[in-house]
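[Backbone geometry]
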Amino acid sequence: MLGKLGVRLVAPAATALVAGALIAAASPARAQTPIGPHQYFTGLVIGKTKLSVISVNCAGPVKTGHPAKGQSVEVKLMVPSVTTADSGGYTGNHASRINAALIWSNGPVTVVTAIATFTSYSVKMAIPTKIMVPCSGAGVMSFKPVPNPDNSAMPATVNVTFTSTGV
């Protein structure tokens, strides 16, 4: 009798083990993937691919301040590759890295501030707290693939709003 019970217990355990392995194999890879040619990607600002709010430390009536600590940018590989223009960016024929830059207008002047350079996907990089940005208003975070000698790459962009923390 104990022999049959042992078989009955082993069979469900083996089934659960196989099912667990299949689920693990179907899960997306969390490993960092190097950036290379012919890849579709999306940019994230504080975890968002659309409108994102960047908190800015501004005290009193000042017009600019420093981004609050703990905010990040990231690029994610789109798998399976998507081929529509509104899906994000494309690394083109030559790109091996993606440069993130924050762009906003200061009156008639367009300000472009380098934020991070990515060589792999799924790596969060902090928005520097030493840069100056507006206390309010709108801008764009651009994720530009480089090099791009033949103009085959396409950047991804995320619209951002600057909001003062009142600090």
Q: What stands out?
A: Confidence is low (pLDDT under 50) at residues 5-29.
